[in-house]
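A further point concerns the way the authors explain their paired sequence and structure data. Each protein is reduced to its one-letter sequence and a matching series of backbone shape codes. An entry of this sort, consisting of the sequence and the corresponding backbone structure tokens, reads as follows:
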Amino acid sequence: MTLEEVFGPNRTDHRMQAVSRALEELLVAAQRRHCLTVGVYESAKLMNVDPDSVLVCVLAADAEDECDVALQIHFTLLSAFCTDNHTHIVRVSGLRRLGQLLGEGEGGRDLHCILVTSPAVHPLQCPALQHVGSFCEQSRDQNQWVPFVQLQDRAEPGQTGPDR
């Protein structure tokens, strides 16, 4: 059963937009608190050393990345590791939007894998984390183990027109 079959098409669109906004808010909040690990290699290292600190794993790829066999193998391994450690996983498209959110220019850091972590001393708590976590749990309840979220490009302040 798809989300459209359960909630109807309009409700699903609204729900996906809300999840997309919550994920963006979570990433920005985590970055402000220095609770992000960015990059496939860096993420794999952290998950090997301290998997309990990882709250959410964001696997990001656009259409042109779907043919990258090495990246897909990394995603498969990271997904398995997250599942074994009960870490929420979200698959997203919209690398350009991720770059905007995290202040990365063209050719910046590898944004294909981003981990949201929480230090034991001062745990990361925000409504966006709860929203994303609930979305992941509901998706798993419907046998969608790695839910997909589309991040939408937005015009940055001072930019107009279709080229943004």
